[in-house]
Design a protein that fits this description.
Elements: H1 9-18, E1 23-28, E2 31-36, H2 37-53, E3 61-65, H3 70-81, E4 85-88, H4 95-105, E5 107-112, H5 117-122, E6 132-135, E7 150-152, H6 153-159, E8 175-181, E9 189-194, H7 195-206, E10 218-221, H8 233-240, E11 243-246, H9 253-263, E12 267-270, H10 272-284, E13 294-297, H11 304-314, E14 318-323, E15 330-333, H12 345-352, E16 357-358, E17 363-368, E18 371-372, E19 381-386, H13 400-403, E20 404-405, E21 408-417, E22 423-428, E23 432-435, E24 438-441, H14 442-450, E25 455-465, E26 469-478, H15 488-495, E27 507-510, H16 524-538
Parallel strand pairs: 1-11, 3-4, 3-5, 4-8, 5-6, 6-7, 10-11, 10-12, 12-13, 13-14, 26-27
Antiparallel strand pairs: 1-2, 8-9, 14-15, 15-16, 17-18, 17-19, 19-21, 20-21, 21-22, 23-24, 25-26
Helix pairs in contact: 1-2, 1-8, 2-3, 2-6, 7-8, 9-10, 10-11
Bound molecules: adenosine monophosphate.
Adenosine monophosphate is lined by residues 181, 228, 298-301, 320, 322-325, 329, 355, 411, 413, 425, 428, 434.
InterPro entries: AMP-bd_C (IPR025110), AMP-bd_C_sf (IPR045851), AMP-dep_synth/lig_dom (IPR000873), ANL_N_sf (IPR042099)
Keywords: Fatty acid metabolism, Ligase, Lipid metabolism
Domain AMP-binding enzyme C-terminal: 445-521
């Protein structure tokens, strides 16, 4: 067979050639804008030309700090197709982590949304490698900023060459994108995606037994484009000529419901927090969302009750899936086998609430204490993954050794697998809390608490939360002299300036001691049970 490179250049070229009339609907600060793929493809070439005029060359990293909109989509293609590397910066990280990852990735140019400027300005003094800032604004003039030099996205595009030619010598193993993911403690870790990985993952999203994304769909990725490439949806959509709806900044459940209704969205993707918000809106309002054929839900476990409510009250089918930043992200998805469709609804729901079966192209194994676990839905082990869209290392990071061993990615997720191969996530060994789809480091919170004069020991655990799936809860042992004196409020106030607001624990429980293992490690499982009881008691 021929060896033709699996590069991303073919994706936008296909959209332009075969689907020039298909639409990208983009919501920005000034409202809804509509573009055809013909226009998007030309604007993408213009952006690549502008970046090359600013000195971006092969292998350079270009960062984005942006919501889901058409300009971000153009960056998604212009940067990799010109041979550079698209670095999507997670704008929910703290300013310290943001400056760390921009410096660590050595971003040469940053593309930024106007409303994210203050965040970037707050860490501008720390940035060591950035040579230019491009502001993705709808306004004619640039906003006031301390950043320099700044460029106006639309003005750059207006002056650029619409016939820019992408280089033809890209290798499929060249880096195309990168994204940082939170570590148990300390700075985030970088994952680099190759052209080949992105192309193969995009194909996997199109398979009939996975998300089945096709030209006939209208796809709305709610999951941010700074999170594992919006789960790869924009890449598949462009390649397949699927209409795209990009919801922009600060959307509400109402706005999402209206967008789905007006644009006749057929498939959408996001974390459970988003769907719980939408469910409430649908229960209270009156919308026609009958166009929806599937809601892809992942990032945290999809609650069974939520899936049922969507399906039975609103006739909206759910697709539960699991993945990680390190896995592009799709790994397993809970589509039923033909003979399982004959089971009654509750049995099917039970299966579909699991994270699902393996997507073709990947391999998994589940390692228990004594080797691989039995496929009995009971024995637990750590999920390990390998395959062409699974990262093989963290970018320039010693922590690679912890997760990548013997050719497998060790996920830190504890799972069972049943007789039919359905994987169910039951626990997590990584000491992190996932709140509304974003990570909170319990270790960092513990260290900060233990730096307070009155604190002898502190442990932070996740408690289940209806809206956010998990929230941090702190357990604190005070030093003798401070017992009965230091208050919760004082400790929370102490944490506030050190972390993003949503990291601050919901509550603090004062204990006489923290339960520990024989080697002195916090027994977080026991603590979690204790805290959950306390949270229940308080209602
Ligand atoms: P991230 O890299 O931020 O996308 O987070 C990946 C992690 O989120 C996984 O390792 C799991 O711990 C968790 N996760 C992702 N999808 C699911 C899911 N469907 N159910 C439960 N946990 C999930």
């Amino acid at each position: 067979m021929m060896q033709t490179p699996l590069t991303m250049t073919q994706m936008m070229e296909r959209a332009e050639k075969y689907f020039p009339k298909k639409q990208v609907v983009s919501r920005t600060a000034s409202g809804i804008q509509r573009f055809t793929y013909k226009q998007i493809a030309e604007r993408t070439r213009r952006l690549a030309d502008s970046l090359s005029k600013l000195g971006v060359t092969k292998g350079d990293r270009v960062g984005t700090l942006a919501w889901n909109h058409h300009r971000h989509l153009e960056a998604y293609f212009a940067i990799p197709c010109m041979g550079a590397v698209l670095h999507t910066v997670n704008i929910r990280l703290s300013p310290q982590h943001i400056s760390y990852i921009i410096n660590h990735a050595e971003d040469k140019v940053l593309l930024v949304d106007p409303d994210i400027l203050p965040l970037l300005e707050s860490c501008a003094a720390e940035l060591k490698t950035v040579k230019a800032f491009i502001i993705m604004t709808d306004d004619k003039e640039l906003p006031e900023t301390i950043l320099s030099p700044v460029y106006h996205y639309e003005k750059l595009l207006a002056e650029a060459n619409p016939d820019y030619h992408y280089p033809e010598d890209l290798d499929e193993n060249d880096p195309a994108g990168m994204c940082y993911t939170s570590a148990t403690t300390g700075n985030p870790k970088g994952v680099v995606y190759s052209h080949r990985g992105i192309v193969l993952h995009s194909m996997a999203l199109g398979l009939a037994d996975s998300a089945a994304i096709s030209e006939k769909d209208v796809a709305l990725p709610v999951v941010p484009m700074f999170h594992a490439n919006a789960w790869g949806m924009p890449f598949s959509a462009v390649w397949f000529g699927t209409s795209l709806v990009l919801p922009g900044p600060y959307f509400t459940p109402k706005l999402l419901a209206e967008l789905i209704e007006q644009e006749k969205v057929t498939v959408t993707a996001g974390v459970p927090t988003i769907w719980l918000g939408l469910l409430k809106e649908l229960d209270e309002g009156s919308y026609d969302l009958s166009s929806l054929r599937g809601v892809l839900c992942g990032g945290s476990a999809a609650p069974k009750g939520m899936i049922k409510a969507f399906e039975q009250r609103h006739n909206i089918p759910f697709m539960h899936a699991y993945g990680m930043t390190e896995t592009s992200p799709l790994v397993v998805i809970s589509t039923l086998k033909s003979y399982q469709e004959e089971l009654d609804y509750e049995e099917r729901l039970e299966l579909r609430a699991k994270q699902g079966t393996l997507v073709p192209g990947l391999e998994i194994k589940i390692l228990g204490k004594d080797g691989e676990v039995a496929w009995d839905g009971k024995e637990m082990g750590e999920l390990c993954i390998k395959g062409p869209w699974i990262a093989s290392e963290y970018y320039k990071d010693e922590r690679t050794e912890e997760a990548f061993r013997d050719g497998w990615l060790h996920t830190g997720d504890v799972v069972t697998i049943d007789e039919e191969g359905f994987v169910k996530i039951v626990d997590r060994t990584k000491d992190l809390i996932k709140s509304g789809g974003e990570w909170i480091s319990s270790v960092d919170l513990e260290n900060a608490l233990m730096a307070h004069d009155s604190v002898f020991e502190a442990a932070v655990v996740a408690v289940p939360h209806e809206q956010w799936q998990e929230r941090p809860f702190a357990c604190v042992v005070l030093k003798e002299a401070y017992k009965g004196k230091t208050t919760k409020e004082e400790l929370l106030e102490f944490l506030t300036p050190q972390f993003a607001k949503w990291w601050i624990p919901d509550d603090i429980l004062f204990l006489d001691e923290i339960p520990k293992t024989s080697v002195g490690k916090f027994l977080k499982m026991t603590l979690r049970d204790q805290v959950q009881k306390e949270a229940l008691r308080k209602g």
